[in-house]
Specification:
By secondary structure, the protein is α+β, with helices and mostly antiparallel strands. It contains six helices and ten strands, in the order βββαβββααββββααα. The strands form three sheets. It has a five-stranded antiparallel sheet with strand order 1-2-3-5-4, covered by helices on one side. A three-stranded antiparallel sheet has the order 6-8-9. α3 packs antiparallel against α4 and α5 runs antiparallel to α6. The radius of gyration is 24 Å and the shape is elongated.
Length: 250
């Protein structure tokens, strides 16, 4: 059995990852890297915030999505206090990639697919969560997979139209910032981002599945155009080969 004195080692505060009510740390638990979040000192002894962190654990513990950071434990850590223990995510936030000029088309594609899928999953499970920002979208090192952190603190019977609309608006907002950062004029993404951030909520998409559908329909339309263009080209070649102007064999 492992030495209990070595249960927690190499605990390091990550100020740039801190959330509104939490401090975030990286640490090793029995030698395995994890991330931990605990209430900021000013909230630790307040019952309403103690209840909040417990509710967040209960809400997120059963979530399972490849682009959402998973929670795997809730325990007291010496010197820190009551903590939610999450999978380790080593990488850079969307904000940092923008600030350092390292954002690429690959990251945009992850926002087009993985981010939409994660938000769609959150809405399907009626999870109330902090607003989506460039700081809670993380891209893992090397592979660059997208991971969402700070994704939920309460599961409701349903989300209100306003909550769904805010998700859509914030998605459009971070997508626009990313597109601006790399100078992308992708017409589909620009069109979707513009509709997501329309000042009139009634003119936005009603939920994330609609956003997903808008993106996929455009992709399928492009594939359809390519196929049709190929078939037309083949027909023209065939007509030419059957015409009097075809090459003559010798």
């Amino acid at each position: 059995m492992a030495d209990q004195n070595q249960r927690w080692t190499e605990i390091e505060h990550l100020p740039e990852w801190d959330e509104e009510f939490y401090h975030i740390y990286t640490a090793k638990k029995f030698g395995k890297w994890v991330m931990i979040k605990t209430l900021r000192p000013e909230f630790k002894d307040l019952p309403e915030y103690q209840e909040m962190i417990e509710r967040e654990f209960d809400t997120r513990y059963n979530l399972a999505h490849p682009n959402i950071v998973m929670i795997n434990d809730f325990e007291d850590i010496p010197g820190i206090g009551r903590c939610i223990v999450c999978d380790d995510v080593y990488g850079d936030s969307l904000q940092k990639l923008i600030d350092t000029g390292k954002l690429t088309d690959h990251h945009i594609e992850q926002m087009r697919h993985q981010l939409v899928g994660a938000l769609e999953y959150i809405q399907a499970n009626h999870i109330a969560h902090a607003p989506l920002t460039t700081s809670n979208i993380i891209f893992t090192e090397n592979i660059g997979n997208l991971k969402l952190i700070d994704v939920g603190f309460e599961q409701k019977p349903s989300l209100s139209p306003r909550e769904r609309s805010e998700d859509i608006y914030n998605y459009g907002k971070v997508l626009t910032r990313a597109l601006d950062a790399i100078g992308s004029d992708d017409p589909v993404l620009r069109r979707v981002a513009k509709k997501c951030t329309d000042p009139d909520p009634k003119k936005r998409y009603t939920d994330m599945p609609q956003v997903h559908l808008a993106l996929e329909n455009q992709k399928q339309r492009k594939i359809f155009i390519i196929i049709i263009s190929f078939l037309v080209a083949m027909i023209l070649v065939l007509v030419w080969l059957l015409s009097p102007y075809r090459p003559l064999s010798h």
